[in-house]
Design goal:
Oligomer: single chain
CATH topology: TIM Barrel
Bound molecules: orotidine-5'-monophosphate
Distance between the termini: 17 Å
Order of helices and strands: HEHHEHHEHEHEHHEHHEHEHH
Largest sheet: 8 strands, parallel, barrel
Helix content: 40-55%
Number of domains: 1
Number of strands: 8
Strand content: 5-15%
Number of helices: 14
CATH class: Alpha Beta
GO molecular function, one term: orotidine-5'-phosphate decarboxylase activity
Organism: Glycomyces buryatensis
CATH superfamily: Aldolase class I
CATH architecture: Alpha-Beta Barrel
Pfam families: OMPdecase
Radius of gyration: 19 Å
Keywords: Decarboxylase, Lyase, Pyrimidine biosynthesis
Structural class: alpha/beta
Pathway: Pyrimidine metabolism; UMP biosynthesis via de novo pathway; UMP from orotate: step 2/2
């Protein structure tokens, strides 16, 4: 998929602000128009689409029916569907979540889902098992794109590793020696190590006595050299991440990157041709940044 269609993942997030920007009402009919236009513009050309479940759930059962349609039509158009649901619970409940999204008998079954390991990576075992049984994938949150994630994810364990690194290492174990790539990925935000502004960089320097470059190096010090799974990289575009950030954030694993854009690719809409040409331009940039 990386070679055939490129690494870019098109997020399908029927955001209230985007619906308004497209001249639509923020209701189920508006979300349907938005989501199906994004499917038409993207799913036949990109390798991966990523609907965010919350933007559909907010419309209740009608939103779930719409999500089912987005999933079915995206897969029919040849894209792999990564459903962003960030599920994570005690093992017995996790088994039910896994059944909902990874069992082909479910109308919400997709190719992969995002999962949260903060009840312990071990609590996700039923999802690993069901994914293996049905040839599906998981993306485990390791270092998220939001600034608040750092406090938990970069906390140091007694063995010196960060929490994020220990998650990366545990997921790598699940992939074992899989060739060319295991089915279990991680989520690593493109914004990691970034300062919101020059002012913030100067404030950090004067407050903590360390330069922005040092902060950035510390924040991006993930060892991905043994990681043989796909890496979902949100935080692109609207949150500030650029294709040129990918080598800095991912180092040797840059060619496993799936850079994900949601708001930025919908911005030129609602015209299908405008969305498609924006996606194609970003696809070319991401391909160049991840295949050097
Ligand atoms: O798992 C995700 O996709 C995700 C993880 C993360 O660390 N940060 C993050 O922004 N996301 C999701 O990626 C999308 C980002 O949207 P944009 O900022 O509009 O590109 C949203 O659907 C988020 O929920």
């Amino acid at each position: 998929m990386f070679d055939a269609r490129g690494p870019l993942c098109a997020g399908i997030d029927p955001h209230g602000a985007l619906l308004q920007h497209w001249g639509l009402d923020d209701d189920l009919a508006g979300a349907e128009r938005f989501a199906m236009t994004m499917v038409e513009a993207c799913a036949g050309t990109v390798g991966f689409v990523k609907p965010q479940s919350a933007f559909f759930e907010r419309f209740g059962s009608g939103g779930i029916v719409l999500l089912e349609r987005v999933i079915a039509e995206s897969r029919q158009a040849g894209a792999l569907v990564i459903l962003d649901v960030k599920r994570g619970d005690i093992g017995s409940t996790m088994a039910a979540y896994a059944q909902a999204y990874l069992d082909p008998a479910s109308s919400l079954a997709v190719d992969a889902i995002t999962v949260s390991p903060f009840l312990g990576v071990g609590s996700l075992q039923p999802a690993f098992d069901l994914a293996a049984a049905h040839g599906k994938g998981l993306f485990v949150l390791a270092r998220t794109s939001n600034p608040e994630g750092k406090q938990v994810q970069m906390a140091r364990r007694r063995d010196g590793r960060s929490v994020a690194q220990s998650i990366i290492d545990e997921v790598a174990e699940h992939n074992g020696e899989a060739e060319p790539l295991g089915s279990y990925g991680i989520v690593l935000g493109a914004t990691v190590g970034a300062c919101a502004s020059e002012g913030e960089a100067r404030l950090r320097e004067s407050t903590y006595g360390i330069t922005h470059t040092q902060v950035r190096q510390r924040d991006t010090a993930h060892d991905l050299s043994d990681f043989n799974g796909p890496i979902l990289v949100p935080g692109m575009g609207a949150q500030g991440g650029r294709p040129s950030d990918l080598p800095r954030v991912l180092g040797p694993a840059v060619n496993f990157a799936i850079p994900a854009y949601s708001r930025q690719i919908a911005q030129p809409g609602p015209a299908v041709a405008s969305i498609r040409s924006a996606v194609e331009a970003l696809q070319a940039e991401c391909r160049a940044a991840t295949r050097e």
